[in-house]
Amino acid sequence: MFELIFLGTSASAPSVHRGLSANAVLYKEYRFLIDCGEGTQRQILQSSLGFKRLNKILLTHGHLDHILGLGGLVSTFSRWEAMEKLEIYGGHWTLERVKDLLLKVVLRGEKLPIKLEFVPLQPGLIMEDNTFQLSAFPVVHRGADCFGFVFEEKSRRPFLNEKAEALGIPFGPERRQLVDGQAITLPDGRPIRPDDVLGPEIPGAKLVFVGDAGRTDNLLEVAHHADALVIEATYLNEDAEMARQFSHLTAAQAAHLAREAGVQQLYLTHISRRYREQDVLDEARAIFPQTIVARDFDRVKVVKDK
Question: What CATH number labels 2-156+201-302?
Fold first, then answer.
């Protein structure tokens, strides 16, 4: 299960009720911040999320409404937060812009008590452990080096306690070995294979996050059967030409993608002040009923649909 917290859901400029782009994804001990628009650190505090262990920042692209909050956030981290390292992930152009902001404007040669690590993104795996993996994929928007992210739990096989007890398998490291796929031998000499005590494979949850985007045909495969898809809906279909001109999506385009990809739940964000929220929702739901227009501080749990 992933927990998703929307910290800023406005497009381009903040509104009275919506801050600029920022989102948090929580999974076990991991905490990821996706984008960091102006005012993000206040949104983090207001959400009760706090800064603890928020040490991995994933940037979809380098436009100012997605990165300007890094200045204040890093300044705060350098003075108040007990954190050894802050990792900032982004495309090459994005990281160059972020380095200018942080190193030339905010810090200006000041030595930080924390290590700043700038990690260039490429399509493919970013990190994994034995239960989940995080990957990046290319997104078409204005400029180069735009990325989206896939958070995916690895499939697992449940341990069948009743079978283990019937076979006389003691509690302890033997059960852990079987869960890890290793055969064991009991003290009486009987061999026990993982298949003897593990149930059928259960797929994990899949969360796909897209920032700003100008087309969806190249996102169909990566969004396939996602349990949750987060994507922008900056325009309504009546302004489709403007959306095309500025390389953004309409609510209808996002909904068509969700329907074609077999997504379970669609979350729309990057909402323009020019439209009523209800109009955005109505346009999308006419195509894909399982749509929610995200609001600042919404918290959702992403689990595998049974």
Answer: 3.60.15.10
